[in-house]
Design a protein that fits this description.
The protein is of the alpha/beta class and 235 residues long. Helix content is 51%, strand content 13%. Helix 1 packs parallel to helix 2 and helix 8 runs antiparallel to helix 9. The radius of gyration is 19 Å and the shape is globular.
């Protein structure tokens, strides 16, 4: 079972978790998407663990306050970092979902973000920001003439679709690709295997990314290679 916004109503969530536990439905891996607010609710975290939910997908977006403010996020960088520390101390797998390429992002912040992810997350996704159709952000990017493509097959979170402020589009795409290669390298996967609260899942990620080429299938796909050539032409 899974949920993409599990703690919107903590009281209802705890009641559901208790039912899951009482019915013996807690024998398989449970995955839930949550905000960092969960870190302030020990009772809810305890109930989640009892119900078998040990894999958390957290929409952190950034560890840069300027970028978080630009996204309208209610949490700052220190709150994000503190929450991840608490989740790990409580034995949760932390899958951080990050956005890069915002106006406040720089090469220095990229290096800081990659180092922090490597030292604090069990797994990650790093998305170049996507101008979702129909949003205020999409309209603003249109007005600023920063949208590079409206080929909807590219709107999957992997492809750079905007002209960023502090990089060329090609540079940003390479940075995202290099972040995946670095984070899921054999060296870093082995290091996380030693510290992960879930050795079985950590081993599974290592096998998928290093042996079955899970990362290579995305960053070296024909579609990505074609997109890189396109980005070179518009940089």
């Amino acid at each position: 079972y899974s949920d993409d916004n599990f703690i919107g109503s903590p009281h209802r969530a705890i009641n559901l978790l208790e039912t899951i536990t009482d019915q013996g439905l807690n024998k398989q891996l449970g995955i839930a998407q949550t905000t960092v607010k969960l870190a302030d609710n020990p009772e809810l975290m305890k109930s989640m663990k009892k119900a078998g939910i040990t894999f958390l997908c957290i929409g952190l977006e950034s560890i840069n306050d300027e970028s978080l403010e630009g996204l309208g996020k209610p949490y700052n960088a220190e709150q994000n970092k503190r929450a991840i520390k608490i989740f790990r101390e409580n034995g949760f797998w932390t899958h951080g979902m990050m956005i890069f390429g915002l106006d406040g992002d720089t090469k220095e912040i990229y290096k800081e973000t990659l180092e922090w992810m490597n030292n604090n997350l069990d797994s990650m996704q790093l998305f170049p920001i996507v101008p979702g159709q129909g949003t205020r952000f999409h309209r603003r990017m249109q007005e600023e003439n920063r949208i590079l493509s409206e080929d909807w097959s590219l709107y999957d979170g992997h492809h750079v679709l905007l002209r960023p402020k502090n990089f060329s589009p090609y540079e940003l795409q390479r940075m995202v690709i290099d972040a995946y290669k670095n984070f899921y390298s054999v060296k870093n996967n082995l290091r996380r295997l030693k510290t992960s609260p879930d050795k079985k899942t950590a081993l599974g990620f290592m096998v998928y990314t290093n042996i079955f080429g899970g990362v290579r299938k995305v960053v070296n796909s024909p579609q990505m290679k074609e997109h890189l050539e396109f980005l070179k032409s518009v940089s």
